Amino acid sequence: MAEGTVYRRYKTKDELLAALLKPMVTTVLPRLMREFSQQVATMRNLTRHQLLTALIENRAAFLAENWPVGKVLLNEMMIQPALRQAIIQNAAPIIQKTLYPILDRLRAQQELAAVPNDMVVQFIVGTVLTNVMRANLQDDFALFNQRVPFLIDFLDRGLAPS
Fold first, then answer.
1. Is 2 left (phi over 0), alpha (psi -120 to 50) or beta?
2. Contact of 42 with 98, CB cutoff 8 Å
3. CB within 10 Å: which end of the chain, N or C, has fewer?
4. Which among 36, 38, 54 has a CA at the least distance from the CA of 46?
5. For the chain, first and last CA: distance in Å?
6. Within the chain, what is the greatest distance between any pair of CA atoms?
7. How many alpha carbons fall within 13 Å on the CB side of residue 98?
């Protein structure tokens, strides 16, 4: 395709990048999240520690395989509110459907603190995401992988019932 054709359709590089990221956010990421959620949902009788380990190690492995694309997505999420909102809108129903029942079961078994599910997810996602962002800013994904055991331990202790 000629460069002129691209710039006729997309007036700026930002518009082109947004067009490239849109299918990832609306189709690819939700599909990947559903597949992962289904895997987690089949893991019966997980303890809090096992769930956190499965979640974080799986996502770390996924990010390691997709780091170049992940970096672009992370950077764009920081500056594009519409992209952030699209990710949240696509992710929230999948998380609620698959992870919330597991959290409810863990709480009923007194394996999980009496914290609302949305806050548990916020703690997990926030802790992981801030460490992924740190690796992104330092341009060294290996740093994130080295922190995974500490993230699991931190969350395991923080989400334990008191």
1. beta
2. no
3. C
4. 54
5. 61
6. 63
7. 19
DSSP state string for 33-58: HHHHHHHHHHSTT--HHHHHHHHHHH
Report helix, strand or coil for 20.
Answer: helix
The number of beta carbons lying within 10 Å of the beta carbon of residue 61 is 12
pTM reported for the whole predicted model: 0.81
Residue 2, both tokens? 């000629």
Round to whole Å and give the CA distance between 133 and 99: 23
Q: 11-62, pLDDT tens digit by residue?
A: 777 777 777 777 777 777 777 777 777 777 777 788 999 999 988 998 888 8
Q: At 129, phi and psi to the nearest 5?
A: -65, -40
Angle, vertex CA 87, rays to CA 59 and CA 108, nearest 5:
60
Nearest to 135 by CA among 65, 78, 81, 63: 63
> What was the pLDDT predicted at 7?
67
Q: What is the gyration radius of the CA atoms in the chain, in angstroms?
A: 18
